[in-house]
């Protein structure tokens, strides 16, 4: 396939960016989207030009690094798929593809298509963990957890923190991400000791980072590559209201 790429180029955070057009030729339909970008960068290097910076790591749909906005959609046109697992057979010969970074104040652009998602790390550091001593690894049947609860906790734990929910939301809200992390621990007995402080601290950090408010449109869940459910936002809201109603923190 021969394609036209409209790629966002931005040298650094302080310099204004712009869309630059490139042509790529002889792209195999079996290539992944990132392999196609590798071809583009090889062409740019051979021409003595600066390659396009983009985030990637595992290229197996696990790490959540490949955060690209493709033709106006997080991770591109295929539902339930990360950019690295998106294949060029989803496009046609002669297509024009627009590639941009995540757009959110809390995700500043490092360079070109690479963004700084460390705001997510700080939210996790605020409370997305179990700090109490849980002892050694218990037998799998020692802690009785109903299967439906275990399944819901596991589904929340599949969040890969890619930020697609933020990019898809018109308010750049991080509620789906935060709700997945809160739900995962709130549903399990290991998370109960810090249940109230966890949700208070993580919500406070989310607001501090500058993410927008949730308006329940659902675009976050629709574009999530691993299918995190909106039900988690309902759990987060319930946890937060309960925590604030009984909290010693009156701020």
TrEMBL record:
<dbReference type="InterPro" id="IPR012675">
    <property type="entry name" value="Beta-grasp_dom_sf"/>
</dbReference>
<dbReference type="GO" id="GO:0022904">
    <property type="term" value="P:respiratory electron transport chain"/>
</dbReference>
<feature type="domain" description="4Fe-4S ferredoxin-type">
    <location>
        <begin position="150"/>
        <end position="180"/>
    </location>
</feature>
<comment type="similarity">
    <text>Belongs to the succinate dehydrogenase/fumarate reductase iron-sulfur protein family.</text>
</comment>
<dbReference type="InterPro" id="IPR009051">
    <property type="entry name" value="Helical_ferredxn"/>
</dbReference>
<dbReference type="Pfam" id="PF13085">
    <property type="entry name" value="Fer2_3"/>
</dbReference>
<dbReference type="InterPro" id="IPR025192">
    <property type="entry name" value="Succ_DH/fum_Rdtase_N"/>
</dbReference>
<protein>
    <submittedName>
        <fullName>Fumarate reductase</fullName>
    </submittedName>
</protein>
<dbReference type="Pfam" id="PF13183">
    <property type="entry name" value="Fer4_8"/>
</dbReference>
<dbReference type="GO" id="GO:0051537">
    <property type="term" value="F:2 iron, 2 sulfur cluster binding"/>
</dbReference>
<dbReference type="GO" id="GO:0009060">
    <property type="term" value="P:aerobic respiration"/>
</dbReference>
<dbReference type="GO" id="GO:0009055">
    <property type="term" value="F:electron transfer activity"/>
</dbReference>
<dbReference type="InterPro" id="IPR050573">
    <property type="entry name" value="SDH/FRD_Iron-Sulfur"/>
</dbReference>
<feature type="domain" description="2Fe-2S ferredoxin-type">
    <location>
        <begin position="18"/>
        <end position="103"/>
    </location>
</feature>
<dbReference type="InterPro" id="IPR017896">
    <property type="entry name" value="4Fe4S_Fe-S-bd"/>
</dbReference>
<dbReference type="InterPro" id="IPR006058">
    <property type="entry name" value="2Fe2S_fd_BS"/>
</dbReference>
<dbReference type="InterPro" id="IPR036010">
    <property type="entry name" value="2Fe-2S_ferredoxin-like_sf"/>
</dbReference>
<dbReference type="InterPro" id="IPR001041">
    <property type="entry name" value="2Fe-2S_ferredoxin-type"/>
</dbReference>
